[in-house]
Every structure is written in C-alpha cells, then in structure tokens.
Amino acid sequence: MNLHLALLISSMVLAAPQLSHEGHHHDELTDQQLGTVHFPVSCVPSVQNDFDRGIALLHSFAFETAEQAFRQVLAEDPHCAMAHWGIAKSMWRWSFDKPHLEKGAEEVKAGERLHPPTGRERGYLTALGQFFAHPKDDQYQRGEAFNRAMEQLIHENPEDHEAEIFYAWSLIDTDDDTHANRKKAAAILEKLFILEPNHPGVTHYLIHAYDTPGMAELGLPAARRYAKIAPAAPHALHMPSHIFARLGLWQEDIDSNLASIAASRNASVTHMGDEGHQYHAMEYLVYAYLQSGRENEAAQVIAEVQTLPKMKNMYDTDSDPNVSAQVEYSASYVTELHRWKDAVALPMLTADDDGDSSLTYKARAIAAARLGDLQTAKLNLRALDDLHAKLLKKKVRGPANAVDQDHRAILAWIDHAESKNDEALELLQELARNDGGLFATDGDIPAHEMMGDMLLDMNRPEQALLEYESELKVSPNRFNSLYGAGHAAEVGNHPAKAAAYYRQLLTVCAGGSSSRFELAHAQEFLSTVAQQ
Asked: For domain 34-230, which CATH number applies: 3.50.50.60, 3.40.190.10, 1.10.285.10, 1.25.40.10?
C-alpha cells in the first residue's frame, strides 16, 4: 500500500469507530428472521419446521447452514428422502467444483434409494439429479436439464409454489444475452410476490431477475422488501444493494451493506457461519462511499479489513478473502480518486500467479501512463502479460479472460500517451460494448468513462460528453462520470447542461465531507452562473 493511503488508513484504525461487531443472540432463527416458507414433505411431522428452515436458508444463499439444517432433519428421520435432496441442493453454490458436484450427485442417489412415497418428491430428486448427472457439462447445460425436469414437475403439481420458485432461480442462472429466461422468471416471481410477500426466495430472486441495466428499477419493491423479510441472513441484507447500486441510490446502498456486515459478524452468534459474506458487502460499501463523496469512510473500511481475523470466503473456495479485499479496495480507492502517484506506488500483495495481481498491475500501469511515465506503464504491462500466460497454463480461463481485458485497457492508455489515439479509442470501444455498469470495488474503470477522459485530453469535449452520458445510462450517479459530463459540457460551452450535471453531483455528495477538487470546481461554476 502506498504511503499516503497507509498513513490515512492507520490514523483511521486508531481514531474512527469500527463497524459494529455486536449483535443480539438468537438461539433459534424464526420466520421473522428468515422469512416465511412452507415446503411440505412426507417425513415425520416433527422435522417439518426444521426442513422449512433449511429451505429458507437455501433461498438466502446460506448454503452451509442450510446443509446443517437438512443433516439435522436426516438425523431425526433417517428415512427422509427429501433431507438428502436438501443437502444436494445446498451444493448448488457459487462455484461448481468437482467435489460439490460429486457430493450433490451422491445425495440425490441416497434420496432415491429411500423411495420417497410421493410423485412430487420423486420429481424433485429427478430434477436435481439432472443437474448433477453430467459434471463435465457446463453449468448452462446442466441448468437447462434441470429446467426441463422442473417444468414437468410444475405441470404435475401446479399449486407447488416452491417448485416455481426454484425453477425461476434456475431460469435466471441460465439466462443469456437476450434475457428471455430472466424475463420469464420475473413474470413467475411477480405473480408469487403478490401471493407470498414474505417469502425470501421470491424477493431474492426478483432482485436477481432485475439486476441488469434497463431493468433495475423494476426490482425496487423487492429490494426494499427482502431485508425486512430475512434480517438474520447477511445475504438478504446485502442483496437489495444490487438494485440500489445499479440505480445510484448510494445512501440506501450504504445502509443495506452496513446491515449485512453487522449480520455477518453476528453469524457466529446465530450459528449461521456466514462471516465471509461481509467481504461481498464491503465491496459495495466502499464503492458507494467513493461515489458519494465519503472517501474517508471508504478508507476506514479498508483500514478495518486489515484487522479482521482469518475466515472462509463466501464462495467456499481456497482463496483468501482478506487479501483479495485489500488488493481490490486499495486499487479502487486510488483510481476512483485519480490519485495517480499513489496508484503507481501500490505494493504487490499477491503471488505472481494470482489473478488478483492483475488489479495492482492495471492500476499501476494506467496511472503511470496518465502521468506520462511510459517505462513504468510498460513494465507493469509486461508483468500482467506474464500473469496471463501463467493463468492459461493453470487452465483457469475466467481469470485469464479478465486479465486479457485489463491488458486492453492498459494498452489503450499507453497508446494515448504515445498519441496513437485512434488505436486507443478502438481498444476501449471493444470493452465498452460489454459495459454493464460498475457498482462495486473491483479495481475497474468503465470504458466509456476512460474514452471520455481521453477525448477531453484531445480537446474533443462534444464526443467526451457523449461517452460520459453513455456511462451514466448504465452507472447512474457515478461520481467521475457525472463530473466528466459536467466538465465536458462546460468546456464545450453548454453551460446549462454543465450546471445540471454539477448540481446532480453536489446533490449526490451532499451527505459527505469530501475535499475533492471536483466538488469545489462544481460549486464555483454554479456560483458563477448564478451571478450572471
């Protein structure tokens, strides 16, 4: 970490209040804490409440705790085939590695060997078996097989809301660029939202259905409902921020993630074991702070990350969430604030074959190029290309593809510094075609915004304004795009439009105490306009 940021963070660790670690003890989570679910099964009646609790936990992605709940059901009723189904469904997590797929398949087979007495229960096991049956198939193919089986189950059991809800989630999980499945899922869930307004799965999956540009506003009712339904589930408290962030509703975003972090830290008390969820909430929290003129609060979160004890990440993988968080948040902090000298000085916190290293190389390289230090920029670009080769050798395609995108962004800034502006813009245009908005601290900078910055450097404010406005369509109330649009309009002699963007920026940052020069410039411009 660079000296400036390190000193700021150190002082905040000592002086600023910590995010709350306290919580109330709940010996047993109730409907008021997880939402209302009823999934009737043919097991002994005494396990029905525990089974419903496991389903509620599944719907809030508390996978490990759900698995424990279903194992408790199985301990009390060894002949409960659907307990095996529940354990298998808890294996449908964030990532689909071989152990989880194999474990899921084993549990489905164990449930089928118990010969459940109803066709409905046999249908649930058959459908889930389709998902786990071919582990070498990609997720989409397995999800499609599950969908087809669930359609048959719903046809045979038209009043089974749980079948519809799990089917809707799988439709979202198998969505494509047309968003046909996403829209189909939303239609199913909107109908159920009226019938079961306290169901955690309905509200959760509605948020996911609308978590995409152009649809996010439709998700506001569910977003504002979900946290009230399941206040004990860290993911339920965080998920509304997906909609808030997409709409640039930064205070609601902040409130949502502060609550999620507190619930994550209370997880050991409520026996949920979801402490790792707090890192995902902090990604959104830091970003929201940076967009709303609250960079001191963002630095405070980064400082606190360094004090957190070791814990598993929410994705149930081997990666250390603390190190990843430090890399992501620190890179985002300096790039979002345009502290280019601090960005060049970012330390390398990860191994040279770790995909997270790309964020540090990218921040350093872009910052160096923007400062005119092409030697440092190219040095970091070479290091990033070496990382790309190592990731390809390890056959980790996802991270390798992300690194390739970072390469294009860096090369664009180097080209711009070398006055090869056509090449630079062409590289960024390729990235901009896949721009779905930015709303978390992943160390990224939107391509439209980068093009706007370059075009302003080239004294082409009219084109720059178009790029900033393109970004604001998918990233509403984003600080640098708002300021960029205002500045481009000002330079392009559109004072009314400049004033509108500057007013919007000041409104967005009204709750902060930022000393950013952009806010001072916006205020000065508006004062000048008012006097004319």
From this structure: 1.25.40.10
